[in-house]
Design a protein that fits this description.
With 195 residues, the chain is of the alpha/beta class. The chain has a single domain, classed as Rossmann fold. It has seven helices and six strands, in the order αβαβαβαβαβαβα. The chain is globular and about 45 Å long.
């Protein structure tokens, strides 16, 4: 969709809001190596495309390190940070070498990693419903890369999605996006404009 196309953007989930916020902040590409935590993002993207929302172009990459290198190179050449989304702790570990490279060269990337649902089966939509959700949860997923990022949100609050995009200066930002969070949107609060 062209940026000037007048379409009303009304997010119904956090995944909708996150994708819209990426586009609004100038993220043109979302490099991704997906997993079970991506379902809400895939659904939000399909919905956004059908409704004509302005969205970043998704580039599926076969390995996380390659995706980070692509985001790194694009940001290095254009001066515009791009986003990378990986699957839980395993994807975070696979992306680590590329993130260290970007950090050492002061090239900004918005790095996001999914997290397994934190609620048990049936408690809420998007709760744990597969054996892998217990095996893939890390106690401190961000710990392996915290010293290489400028800002680390974890998943503590939904405002983190906007705050991570407020830091376009040097170094990376990391944001964890649990599947259950992406399926919901608390209409009592708003994602920040970042201004």
């Amino acid at each position: 969709m062209k940026p000037e196309h007048p379409v009303t953007f009304k997010p119904e989930t956090a995944a909708d809001a996150w994708l819209g916020l990426l586009a609004a902040r100038g993220v043109e590409y979302l490099f991704a190596n997906g997993g079970t935590d991506f379902a809400p993002v895939v659904e939000a993207y399909a919905k956004g495309q059908s409704l004509g929302w302005r969205l970043p172009q998704i580039v599926i990459v076969p390995h996380e390190n390659m995706g980070v290198a692509m985001a790194h190179g694009y940001a290095m050449v254009t001066g515009r940070p791009q986003a990378m989304m990986v699957h839980v702790g395993v994807g975070t570990a696979n992306a680590l070498n590329g993130l260290i490279n970007a950090s050492r060269q002061n090239v900004p990337i918005l790095f996001t990693a999914g997290r397994t649902p934190l609620t048990e089966s049936g408690a809420l939509p998007a709760a744990r419903n597969n054996y892998i959700h217990w095996a893939q949860e890390h106690f401190d997923q961000g710990g392996m890369l915290r010293e290489f990022v400028k800002w680390d949100a974890g998943d503590r609050e939904e405002r983190a999605a906007g705050a991570g995009l407020r830091y376009p200066a040097a170094r990376d930002s990391r944001l964890a996006l649990p599947r259950k969070f992406l399926f919901h949107l608390d209409h009592r609060s708003r994602l920040p404009s970042g201004r």
